[in-house]
């Protein structure tokens, strides 16, 4: 089972966008119209309720990334775009994994969780639900250790992140106009 292991061509964009109905649809539609794939997408409001932050994980080289950014800036709702590069940003993902467990394997699974700072968030007679947060390499290593016990199902949030230190993605100082109801 591949879990997006080709990290060499994976890129992460952080977009500030107007928090308007249809913005997500317009951004994802741009990708599909141009034939680009979104590997992962997270969206949430920011400290300014008029602005949302989208974190988009995609695959591509510098030319593809440049083309995507140019096309995204043509959308009215896009305020700012920054690539979250490995060394200068924090990039994390949340994963829930339901794994087979019985009296014999439960303690082994819990020990692996402790090594990875993962949490057991649900216990049932024949399974455990595990929660892990971290960069992709940590998630992949955890999957490799848990896989022999039998993964029943899992869900990944997709990457989200911020730039480190004083650097931040800030919109222009203008106020956004919200659509009338």
What is this structure, in a nutshell?
By secondary structure, the chain is an alpha+beta fold.
Describe this structure in words.
This protein is of the alpha+beta class and 181 residues long. It folds into two domains: 74 residues, ACT domain (Alpha-Beta Plaits); 69 residues, Alpha-Beta Plaits, CATH 3.30.70. It is 25% helix and 38% strand. It contains four helices and nine strands; from the N terminus they run βαββαββαββαββ. A hairpin with a 5-residue loop joins strand 2 and strand 3.
Give keywords.
single chain, alpha+beta, Alpha-Beta Plaits, 2 domains, 5-stranded antiparallel β-sheet, 9 strands, disordered C terminus
CATH topology descriptor of the largest domain: Alpha-Beta Plaits
Number of strands: 9
Mean pLDDT across residues = 87
Q: Helix count, per DSSP? A: 4
Multimeric organization: single chain
Q: Helix/strand/pairing class, anyone?
A: alpha+beta
Indicate the overall shape.
elongated
Order of helices and strands: EHEEHEEHEEHEE
Which CATH class of the largest domain applies here? Alpha Beta
The total domain count is: 2
Q: Helix share of residues? A: 25-40%
CATH architecture of the largest domain: 2-Layer Sandwich
């Amino acid at each position: 089972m591949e879990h997006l292991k080709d990290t060499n061509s994976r890129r992460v964009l952080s977009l500030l966008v107007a928090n308007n109905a249809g913005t997500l649809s317009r951004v994802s539609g741009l990708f599909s119209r141009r034939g680009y794939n979104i590997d992962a997408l997270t969206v949430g409001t920011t400290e300014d309720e008029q602005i949302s932050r989208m974190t988009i994980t995609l695959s591509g080289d510098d030319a593809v990334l440049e083309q995507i950014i140019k096309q995204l800036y043509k959308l009215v709702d896009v305020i700012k775009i920054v690539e979250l590069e490995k060394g200068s940003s924090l990039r994390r993902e949340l994963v829930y994994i339901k794994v087979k467990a019985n009296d014999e394997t439960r303690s082994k699974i819990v020990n692996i969780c402790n090594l990875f700072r993962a949490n057991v968030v649900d216990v049932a007679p024949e399974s455990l639900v595990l929660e892990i947060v971290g960069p992709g390499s940590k998630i992949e290593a955890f999957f490799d250790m848990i896989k022999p016990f039998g993964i029943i199902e899992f869900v990944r949030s997709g990457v989200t992140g911020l730039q480190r230190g004083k650097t931040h993605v800030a919109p222009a100082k203008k106020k956004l106009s919200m659509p009338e109801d």
